[in-house]
Design goal:
Elements: H1 2-28, H2 44-47, H3 53-56
Length: 74
């Protein structure tokens, strides 16, 4: 039964390698080496952080001129 583990191991290694090559070809070949430059890299989850108030430096509330933040005396 030791040969069965060897066959299983070889099959898993071969499947991993074939899958890796297929994924590489599917992502790399169509765009001449630019993996998803127009699709994956501009996906919402990769760009949404730059559209937040924190990224733009916009305050949540604006303090009027002459006012202070917090108590006037301690």
């Amino acid at each position: 039964m030791g040969w069965l583990a060897d066959v299983l191991s070889a099959g898993l290694d071969a499947g991993y390698t074939v899958g890796l090559v297929l994924i590489f070809i599917a992502l790399q070949y169509p765009k001449n080496g630019q993996i998803g430059a127009d699709t994956i890299q501009v996906w919402w989850g990769n760009t949404v952080y730059s559209n937040t108030a924190d990224a733009k430096g916009v305050p949540h509330k604006i303090i009027p001129k002459g006012s202070t933040f917090g108590p006037s005396s301690w």
